[in-house]
């Protein structure tokens, strides 16, 4: 792929791809910009929750299952298998994780969740790789099956009222895993917490966010976060990862070079399911299994993959965004109202950028939409919770509508591969 | 975005170009038609039996009970009633499949359609012959409009309809909850349920019990045959005429089988995508109506959810033919109805969900496996016929 591009002059797709590949400086600048905007909004609107450690900590906790499902999606799609069944594997992870955690302790619960998810992945691999079933069809069927298995087993395990605190649709409470905090800064003297309480512009916001990210973090959350760089390392810095990705880009070529295409695809999809299962565990360990608790997080994870342009870093950013949207809606409606102002300000920034690039039409559109959000902000006291619930989904749609033509999925993504046949 | 390769969206049995015609292909088709469902049934039964063994019950006892419970007149009537929305949902999904479109958004489309149709229907008073058509029109328009969002995103921005309809489902659910709570709510005395104002008498769909009595069947106490089954049959015939007997249907299927070939022969792919999606959404709009016009007469928090997702299973099982989808809907409804009383012999009712999932998965796998065997045989036949070395 790269050898060819060196020779010929840079094409527009190459340029676009290069612009999309987030460089460290751009990322840092955007992060600082976002922080300034957020603290500005907090000071103006008085919605303290926007950058409080409570919100950030909840955002991190909620981002982890989405991110793990997303990583699952990334592994599968990098090997060319679309995994719509992530939701079903997530459900399997939650059920088996909660069940095993209650009876045998939280670590066994985590392992059971991973195993259950991996089994779901194995089923998907069997259907799509060995039998060549359409990926979306198989995924939809696995979602049906995953939900059905969880309901059925709940009924068997808890339906008779033998287990205290459990019922037809929920498991008993499970033991939490240990939590870690950063010493001194967010624990003990709690320097960050004190700084946060001062309410200073920017400094307290930064402290709140940092504290939320470092205080009382579950080991499982930490594991989930670490899996992002680990995934990057394995997929982009090892021979195994190169082979796996080659299968998703051009399986025929990979096969001719001696890569075991079927085996790679199996490995990717089983790992994909295991990651989704781990995501399920992160929802239930220290809490309970409830029917319908995954709430489409598998699909949101898939959206995070697309949002992140099939890259781990972008995926993590997407998961963080969705986790934050999830967390903010759990807070009082005032915080969401503050976000309306945030969107308005953000659109003003976008408008200025587009105006500098002489794209006047886009700039005017951004200003108009921004003004609409500002008006909405001024007109209401709170935003109804029903509308806030689908913020991540709306954001996903908008991102796809704006950026989907600049995204680059693996070239052979979703195409059934049969050795020795062209299609 | 290659989330889905359109030409493979629905594993269509191929007509292999063996160079020969007639009986050979028919024989293979027959094989496909008989072996695949049998294989699938065996696998699905095996999975269900394992699940039953886990719960500590004898699968044979359970199946026997399901058969005897499910075939009482009362159960059969309920099965037919429950199959109607599943059938409509399956057709809505299938029309998209026909051209390689995955409308996973039937769920959101029918939820929003049922709510707005209930609200609109309650807001007006019309004579009998206008009220029901009005409600149906509103429901179809809303369903088509919501599906249209995904269609426009796909044709103008290249957004995969799989992802966009999944997102639109959640947004529709939130919107419906919001609208119900703030705009259309009517408090019910002594109940936690919030629902729209009930529909007038003129908007209640006639029931078919008199017709049953004419046939000499006396419906049991408290059971009736909803009139919407007639609508379902009419829609099924319409679907067949449209897909199999019209130019539009031909172009639809052509696009599904090979988009590039269709475009090369003058089919406007974007127009077809929008048309198929709008049709699918309009059909999806009907899914909530058997309940709205037949039993509940209002949209409330307790309105049946999940029909859109089950419809995907029904469509996959029915393999695109209106009769197949009908049988699949009846099978799904039968499984649900006949397992309703299993609780009494200590078997979880939810076994039917596992059965449905297992059937769908094993059917798609079985058809693909048998198709491949067919293709391999055809290739071998071609090799035998064309290779001078072996042709003796």
Nutshell version of this structure?
Chain A is mostly helical.
Q: What is the percent of helical residues of chain A? A: over 70%
Q: What spatial order of strands do you see in the largest sheet of chain A? A: 1-2
How large, in whole angstroms, is the Cα Rg of chain A? Answer: 23 Å
Distance between the termini of chain B: 50 Å
Describe the structure.
The complex is a heterodimer of chains A (423) and B (392). By secondary structure, chain A is mainly α. Chain A has 19 helices and 2 strands. Chain A has helices spanning 2-7, 12-20, 24-45, 53-78, 86-104, 106-130, 135-158, 191-198, 203-214, 219-237, 239-249, 251-256, 261-284, 297-307, 312-330, 333-356, 360-379, 385-388, 391-403; strands at 179-180, 217-218. In chain A, strands 1-2 form a two-stranded antiparallel ribbon. Chain A is globular, with a radius of gyration of 23 Å. The two termini of chain A are 21 Å apart. Chain B starts with 22 loop residues before the first helix and ends in a 6-residue tail after the last helix. In chain B, a hairpin with a 6-residue loop joins β1 (186-187) and β2. A two-stranded antiparallel sheet of chain B has the order 1-2. In chain B, 50% of the residues are buried. Chain B has 392 residues and is an all-alpha fold. Chain B contains 15 helices and 2 strands. Chains A and B meet through α7, α14 and α19 of A and α6, α13 and α15 of B.
List the topology elements.
The complex is a heterodimer of chains A (about 425) and B (about 400).
Chain A: H1 2-7, H2 12-20, H3 24-45, H4 53-78, H5 86-104, H6 106-130, H7 135-158, E1 179-180, H8 191-198, H9 203-214, E2 217-218, H10 219-237, H11 239-249, H12 251-256, H13 261-284, H14 297-307, H15 312-330, H16 333-356, H17 360-379, H18 385-388, H19 391-403
Antiparallel strand pairs in A: 1-2
Chain B: H1 23-54, H2 59-70, H3 73-97, H4 106-123, H5 128-157, H6 161-182, E1 186-187, E2 194-195, H7 209-214, H8 228-245, H9 247-257, H10 259-264, H11 269-286, H12 289-296, H13 307-318, H14 322-338, H15 351-386
Antiparallel strand pairs in B: 1-2
Helix pairs in contact in B: 1-15, 2-14, 3-8, 3-11, 3-13, 3-14, 4-5, 4-6, 4-11, 4-13, 5-6, 5-11, 8-9, 13-14, 13-15
């Amino acid at each position: 792929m790269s050898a060819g591009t060196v020779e010929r002059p840079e094409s527009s797709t190459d340029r676009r791809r290069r612009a999309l590949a987030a460089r460290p400086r751009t990322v840092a600048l955007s992060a600082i910009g976002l922080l300034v905007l957020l603290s500005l909004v907090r000071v103006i609107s008085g919605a303290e929750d926007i950058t409080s450690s409570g919100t950030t900590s909840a955002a991190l906790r909620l981002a982890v299952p989405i991110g793990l499902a997303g990583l699952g999606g990334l592994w599968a799609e990098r090997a060319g298998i679309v995994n719509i069944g992530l939701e079903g594997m997530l459900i399997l992870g939650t059920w088996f994780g909660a069940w095993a955690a209650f009876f045998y302790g939280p670590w066994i619960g985590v392992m059971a969740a991973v195993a259950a998810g991996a089994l779901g992945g194995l089923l998907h691999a069997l259907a799509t790789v060995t039998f060549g079933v359409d990926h979306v069809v198989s995924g939809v069927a696995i979602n049906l099956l995953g939900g059905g298995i969880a309901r059925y087993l709940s009924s068997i395990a808890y339906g008779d009222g033998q287990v205290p605190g459990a019922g037809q649709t929920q498991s008993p409470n499970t033991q939490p895993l240990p939590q870690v905090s950063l010493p001194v800064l967010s624990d003990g003297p709690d320097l960050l917490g004190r700084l946060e309480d001062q309410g200073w512009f920017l400094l307290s916001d930064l402290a709140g966010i940092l504290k939320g990210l470092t205080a009382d973090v579950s080991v499982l959350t930490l594991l989930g976060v670490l899996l992002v760089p680990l995934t990057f390392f394995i997929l982009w810095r090892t021979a195994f990862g190169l082979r796996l990705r080659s299968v998703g880009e051009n399986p025929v070529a990979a096969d001719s070079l001696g890569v075991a295409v079927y085996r790679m695809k199996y490995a990717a999809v089983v790992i994909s399911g295991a990651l989704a299962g781990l995501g399920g565990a992160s929802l239930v360990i220290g809490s309970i299994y409830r029917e319908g608790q995954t709430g489409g997080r598998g699909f949101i994870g898939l959206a995070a993959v697309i949002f992140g342009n099939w890259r781990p870093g972008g995926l993590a950013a997407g998961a963080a965004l969705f986790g934050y949207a999830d967390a903010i809606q759990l807070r009082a409606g005032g915080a969401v109202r503050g976000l309306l102002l945030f969107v308005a300000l953000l659109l003003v920034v976008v408008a200025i950028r587009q105006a500098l690039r002489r794209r006047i039409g886009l700039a005017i559109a951004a200003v108009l939409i921004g003004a609409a959000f500002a008006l909405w902000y001024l007109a209401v006291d709170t935003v109804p919770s029903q509308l806030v619930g689908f913020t991540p989904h709306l954001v996903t749609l908008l991102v796809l509508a704006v950026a989907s033509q600049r995204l680059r999925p693996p070239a052979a993504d979703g195409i059934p591969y049969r050795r020795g046949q062209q299609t | 975005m290659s989330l889905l390769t359109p030409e493979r969206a629905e594993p269509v049995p191929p007509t292999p170009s063996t160079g020969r015609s007639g009986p050979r292909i028919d024989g293979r088709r027959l094989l496909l038609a008989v072996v695949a469902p049998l294989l699938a049934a065996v696998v699905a039964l095996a999975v269900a039996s394992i699940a039953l063994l886990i719960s500590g019950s004898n699968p044979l006892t359970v199946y026997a009970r399901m058969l005897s419970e499910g075939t009482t007149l009362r159960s059969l009537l309920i099965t037919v009633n429950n199959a109607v929305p599943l059938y409509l949902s399956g057709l809505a999904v299938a029309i998209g499949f026909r051209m390689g479109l995955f409308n996973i958004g039937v769920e959101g489309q029918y939820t929003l359609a049922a709510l707005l149709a209930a609200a609109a229907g309650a807001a007006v008073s019309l004579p009998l012959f206008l009220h029901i058509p009005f409600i149906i029109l509103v429901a179809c328009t809303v369903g088509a409009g919501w599906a249209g969002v995904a269609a426009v995103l796909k044709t103008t921005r290249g957004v995969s309809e799989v992802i966009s309809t999944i997102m639109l489902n959640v947004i529709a659910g939130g919107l419906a909850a919001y609208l119900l709570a703030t705009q259309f709510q009517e408090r019910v005395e002594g109940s936690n349920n919030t629902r729209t104002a009930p529909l007038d008498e003129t908007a209640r769909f006639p029931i078919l019990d008199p017709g049953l009595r004419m046939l000499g069947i006396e419906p049991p106490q408290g059971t009736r045959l909803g009139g919407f089954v007639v609508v379902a049959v009419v829609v099924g015939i319409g679907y067949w005429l449209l897909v199999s007997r019209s130019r539009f249907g031909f172009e639809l299927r052509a696009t599904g089988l090979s988009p590039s070939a269709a475009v090369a022969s003058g089919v406007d792919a974007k127009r077809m995508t929008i048309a198929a999606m709008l049709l699918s959404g309009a059909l999806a709009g009907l899914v909530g109506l058997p309940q709205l016009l037949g039993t509940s007469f209002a949209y409330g928090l307790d309105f049946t959810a999940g029909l859109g997702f089950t419809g995907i299973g029904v469509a996959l099982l029915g393999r695109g033919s209106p009769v197949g989808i009908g049988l699949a809907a009846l099978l799904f409804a039968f499984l649900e109805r006949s397992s309703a009383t299993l609780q009494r012999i200590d078997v979880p009712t939810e076994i039917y969900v596992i059965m449905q999932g297992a059937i769908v998965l094993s059917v798609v796998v079985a058809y693909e496996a048998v198709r491949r065997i067919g293709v391999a045989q055809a290739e071998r036949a071609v090799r035998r016929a064309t290779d001078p070395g072996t042709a003796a």
